[in-house]
């Protein structure tokens, strides 16, 4: 049609997703459709079948890997380490018939993945067959010689390494004579291999060659060492000291140490003091050290590492020459070499202290030389090494020559005081540790000697003054360290008569009372140590407690801080000093306190009253091991008695003092007699105090202290005094007008006195107290039975006679467990436990008492339960001792009597089952198989009961039974036990579910998971799997805890000293030297960096001076640069150059703005998950603050929705919290509904937002409540 538009149309094909994977089939190992798998399979000609891969071979493979294939239910099954080892050894024995014990460790730890192990196993099997075919005895010698022959025959490096590994195992077991005879042949073979493989990559081969050579050389006599071939072999070992492979290098160092530590024997049978190889070693080391260049620094470090172990085995001349070489090496300025050299000296004096080659003269020379090589105090690594070396050197010199050591030691203290000014805390603590070590090792033996000469005192004073000078303000940064050293000084030298320490105490007092002193605890500790050793009299003489009455205690009592220090440290002193010095001071404080209170100044008065009590609190310390009890206790006794009666607030201190005096002098007859003399005065006072009714809880505590003091004082009180008070107490018990409280108190006093009186007084007390067993006052009844318990439990002759004469009365009184107050059951059973063995007819007693005791097992009171268990066990022991049958038969009779309770009420059945379990636990060694069979038969029947208590008790019985019965005895009952647990009805199962899991856990631990799994039905196996997982998890936790147990640390923690191995970790960190070379170069360059410290006020550094080493530091010094100014005047600038000025109203919110470059900090290890979760939200809020460039296309500016925090519209600008605005609803925050939250991946975000809202609401509510509470407090009444 003309003028009309034509349209092309086509029918759109219906969209089809095509064939899709069925749900769950995408990752299936056996899918329904296998079209492509079939095509791949058709491309092969034939599928191999009938191969050698059998079930047995596969099982062997899995056993070697220690990963046996298990069913899904057996995945949690675990084996002990011993089981795995024996299994591996059994499987390896299929491949070798060698039975030599020397190879047992290799065979037990065989690894199929190791090519070396497989090669060793093949050679070992071949050697074993060869030895057996020749009719050998399979000795170590035969195997060793055969291996040497094989070593000469094999050609490949792997075979040679395997042979050498086997030879290294055997060479230590071969007779020494064979190694001496065959030394030439063996050494030639080893030398040829070493020359051949010097540059080989097989470190194992070279390592074992060196080890075998070392043992071969070590057993040779002196004559052999005089041959040049022997020296050449030893020099060859020395060449490997600098080998590039760490494994070879360490093997060579160990070989040299092994040889030098065992000197050869001469023909006359005498052992040399120094090994002849030490000369070769010294020449080699000196030569290498003298050829030092910056390129050979690592080689020098390896030589120093060797010298650290062997330097002490050199002769005197070689030792001196080597030390001189090392000292010259320290002048070159290499910090690592300096540190390692100092470690060599430290190890020389620490591990070779008894060596005769290190003379006192040489030690003195080394000490004086090392003072010229003091590193920089701020360079921690060499400085700590220097401190350690000097400490051990001076200690060694003191052992060799005490007079010479005393001359040099003051210089060490002076130098250490200078080093304390270091800015490095590790160096400061190292100096402190050095001082403490020297004081304990050198000064303490001098002061503890029987006599201390004036020269000794002057020597100690010189050392002390070096430390005392550090109390100047110049050392204020290390005053805590100085005070710790002074405390040690007071500890080790405070016992000697001196005046210089008292002057130091005065300096410490001035320091303590200075303004803003920061180390109060350390100073108190130092002064307290002075109190312990010098005594309180010397300390108070130096720091007098001057009492000058004033309204301000700091003015009237300036040194009152000393009282708590003395209280915590005083002991082993004189009582007379307390009576003559502190008592008048306390009385003055009390008088002045009363004066202030009468004037209406209650606050000041209470302060001085507190000082009065603090002074009296010193009394227990003065009564701790006093030295003048016989002479001066009489001067203090009357005062203490009067204060006990009159001053309630001092009663606890005085009682504590009396207990200390008696307890610590029970074995001192003189002091004991003096204290015993005053018992007639103190014991009646204590009796009266205990019978006075208290007015509050505080006096209750005082009564307990009085009773405890009476128990202690009665140990030394004369019998006449005790009988007098005992009769008086019995008379008051018969008095009908006696108040209940006083009757209770008298029963307590009779309870503690009953063990000291005779049989007549015991009968009298029993006659009076037996009438109170039916008293209406329950407390009286309970205390009466406790008195009987004390009477029956004592081992005195009078008590035993009374019990044997009154068994019938006691039986009638105590067998009534079912009647009487419940609180008395525990006391009755404890009393019966003490006397049940004295009853003549044990059959009757057991039959009458056992049902009552069984019922008490289920008593609510924990004390009654414990007492019933103890009584039950004691009854069975007494029953066994009364019978002539075996223990197994007697136990069976007892169980038969007890099982009569299984036919009574459910409560009795429950208690009987628990009681039988307790008996089996306590007498597990006497449980026979027949008895176990009878018990299990009864228990199986009880599992069919419909009573919850019965079934619960049966399950509880299994918990007690399984751990104590042997596996072979219980194995036949496992299937029955599991069946009973599985057949519990559903109504009862819920109540015993937890106990059932515990029983299964015990069964798994005893018999293994696989055995128990066989008897569990399929529908219950999930529970068993979970139980096994919990058990395995606990095992792993316990194993990890046992591995990572922390060591005890000293009070002052010193940084770990870096050893030479740590300094060489760039080359020793891995056995593979083919790592990242660039990284190693960078690390090496960083480790070699050093800084030269120059003082602008002095001349330039003279490197020819040995002391210049202290100006070369490995630690980068602090950069004293000018503080950088903020060129933006404190404002932030956007990327386009505009200033960003924040609103003051939101200043709090913008104090910590979110930065765009914090991802690195957020994702560091240790960042909490909450921070990671909040990262995405922070980025959302951050987008609005980013600058965006304009443009077109994809760079065009787009509108972004404004992101607001929930509830921000209601926030008040000035007040805290939210406010309601006019025309708007109440403040609220909500999460809008969003269909995207239905997505499983985004569901967590909504939950997180909801939690944030709740957290913010709670925070705001708390803040508002606090403000409301503050506003209420400010309102006037």
UniProtKB/TrEMBL annotation:
Gene Ontology CC: nucleus
Superkingdom as given in the UniProt entry: Eukaryota
Basic residues biased stretches: 7-22
Residue ranges occupied by any RRP12 N-terminal HEAT domain in the UniProt entry: 106-352
A Pfam family hit: HEAT_RRP12_N
The keyword Nucleus is annotated on this UniProt entry: yes
InterPro entries found in the cross-reference section: ARM-like, ARM-type_fold, HEAT_RRP12, HEAT_RRP12_N, RRP12
Biased composition (Basic and acidic residues): 1145-1162
Subcellular localization: Nucleus
Disordered as annotated region, ranges: 1-36, 1036-1055, 1063-1090, 1144-1196, 1256-1277
Biased composition (Polar residues): 24-33
PANTHER family, per database record: ARM REPEAT SUPERFAMILY PROTEIN
Family designation: Belongs to the RRP12 family.
Name recorded for this polypeptide: RRP12-like protein
Organism listed in the record: Hemiscolopendra marginata
